[in-house]
Amino acid sequence: MENLYPRANFSLILTLFLIFFPQLLHSQTKNGAFSRQPPRPMVFTPHNRPDSDPQQVHISLAGIDHIRVSWITEAKHAKSVVEYGKESGKYNALETGEHKSYTYFFYHSGEIHHVKIGPLEPSTTYFYRCGGSGPEFSFRTPPSGFPIEFAVVGDLGQTEWTASTLQHIDSKDYDVFLLPGDLSYADGQQPLWDSFGRLVEPYATRRPWMVTEGNHEIETIPIIHPYGFRSYNARWRMPHEESGSTSNLYYSFDVAGTHIIMLGSYTEFDADSSQYKWLEADLANVDRKKTPWIFVLLHAPWYNTNTAHQGEGESMRKAMEELLYKARVDVVFAGHVHAYERFTRIFHNKENQCGPMYVTVGDGGNREGLALTFKNPTSPLSLFREASFGHGRLSVLNQTHAHWSWHRNNDSNAVVADQVWLESLSISKACWETLEDQGLSSSLKDEL
After folding, report:
1. How far is CA 345 from CA 330, 425, 435, in A?
2. Tens digits of per-residue pLDDT, 276-302?
3. What residue ranges define each of the domains in the chain, with the CATH number in brackets?
4. How far apart are CA 363 and CA 346, in angstroms?
5. How far apart are CA 334 and CA 392, in angstroms?
6. Cα 80 to Cα 179: distance, rounded to the nearest angstrom
7. Half-sphere exposure for 104 (CA within 13 Å, toward CB)
8. Strand order of the sheet with strand 390-396?
9. What is d(CA 404, CA 420) in angstroms, rounded to the nearest whole number?
10. Predicted confidence band of residue 35 (pLDDT cuts 50, 70, 90)
11. Cβ distance 343 to 358 under 8 Å?
12. Distances from the Cα of 304 to the Cαs of 39, 314, 326, 333, in angstroms?
């Protein structure tokens, strides 16, 4: 069946949603009374390719030595195939995947294709074409070992600030893009998912984008769509199956000596939940001799001194914080609060040099503006905080040391406003000795 609302009628769709579902323009969690700096205007990216050609192309890591290529076609019978090779225009490999579409109220999506390709060599550029037609793209696989660099940014949206953030990230090379929730800010207006996919395509085709969901991905409508994440799960498939998870809302992956865990703030997380049990098993399987670094991303921050979204991550913190602490997780990144904040290492609301460092990076460029007001006096746990748009970079140099920096957006360039060196907790003999009955191998104890 053809799409009932072709691209030319985007304005009509938007108007109907604004009239009948104005609540969809807002976060599905209460923001509270706090001031925001107005964002720059929204950017709507139109579709300008033939209906059979791929659009909204992006890639993600999909297990060891594999990449998942995802894209959308307006044509319903386009092939779910990816041709690829190491030379431009010369494709010596082909993989076939699957495609499906979804319906949301009056909206009918295009065909969403997912194809897993590989095995691939590390630190290698591959050229690829989706569906047998359209433009050629290329990506570089991450390295097999250190050093590796991550770009980290949350609450991205699609405004002029978003475009600025993406340009600043792209001005310096990196290996993997990490996004802790709130991608398109579609909030039920499905054409905005399409616009977002086209906006990020120039970046997401060249480096893997690893994302987790935020509150703006929920998109429930009572009775009509009572279950959330329909659009997010269909469009942004992550390697949950490869990591033993039963939900696309939480998963993990290994890359170059790091173990990255993407948690779901908006699905069950108590001790009886599937997510909790999965996380417990996932952490138990990490070999810190082979994978010395563990980083966690989630949306609603567990620690926050901004007046925005106070306490919204508290229930999850109480449920899961001890698991991360016992596993000696190195850093926890969050979004949701539209500002930047870096904390010291913490456990149970107290400074603890064996706990994770907590960082909020909900400053990508969203349409809601910045959360300008922080609580006073400043907590001694909070080491740097600023309400500006920007992005972070995590450079893991070797098994023992990494460098974190936050880059504030300026009109023409990004400025390093905060930075810190990190030492992996995997090498801290004192921290491991404080654990009791955690099943730590004697060989690792002796090595430490």
Report:
1. 9, 11, 17
2. 999 999 999 999 999 999 999 999 999
3. 50-141 (2.60.40.380), 143-437 (3.60.21.10)
4. 22
5. 12
6. 26
7. 27
8. 209-212, 176-180, 148-152, 390-396, 401-409, 414-423
9. 5
10. low
11. yes
12. 22, 10, 22, 12
What is the pLDDT averaged over residues 344-372?
96
List, for residues 93-135, the tens digit of each pLDDT value: 999 999 999 999 999 999 999 999 999 999 999 999 999 988 9
In the chain, the amino acid numbered 353 is: Q
Cα 180 to chain centroid distance, Å, stands at 4
Tokens of 390: 């920007």
Long-range contacts of 438-446 (CB under 8 A, 24+ apart): 438/326, 439/284, 444/288, 444/289
Q: What is the pLDDT of residues 227-250, one digit of tens each?
A: 999 999 999 999 999 999 999 999
pTM: 0.90
Alpha helices by DSSP H, listed for 64-180, are: 160-170
**Nearest of 58, 96, 55, 60 to residue 73 by alpha carbon:** 55
Q: Which H helix or E strand runs over 378?
A: none
Nearest one of 371, 357, 7, 348 to 155, comparing CA atoms: 371
Collapse the DSSP code of 182 into the 3-class scheme (helix H, G, I; strand E, B; otherwise coil) and give the result.
coil
Tokens representing 288 are: 């810190």
Show Cβ contacts of residue 334 under 8 Å, excluding neighbours closer than 6 positions: 154, 180, 297, 298, 299, 300, 301, 302, 313, 358, 359, 360, 361, 362
- With beta carbons less than 8 A apart as the criterion, state whether 273 and 265 touch: no
Structure tokens at 118: 């590989």
SS3 376: coil
Any alpha helices (H) in 303-428, and if so which ranges? 314-326
Please name the residue that has the structure tokens 């295009």. Answer: 110
Q: What is the DSSP letter of 338?
A: S
Instruction: Tell me the catalytic residues.
Output: 309
Contact 302, 358 (CB under 8 A): yes
Position 186: which residue type?
A
Residue 369 to residue 366: CA distance in whole angstroms: 6
Beta-carbon contacts of residue 57 (< 8 Å; ≥ 6 apart):
69, 70, 71, 130, 137, 201, 204, 205
Give the dihedral sign, CA 226/227/229/233.
negative
**Helix axis angle, 160-170 relative to 191-204, nearest 10°?**
20
Question: Who contacts 399 (Cβ-Cβ below 8 Å, separation ≥6)?
Answer: 146, 257, 292, 293, 424, 426, 427
Of 226, 223, 286, nearest in space to 260 by CA? 286
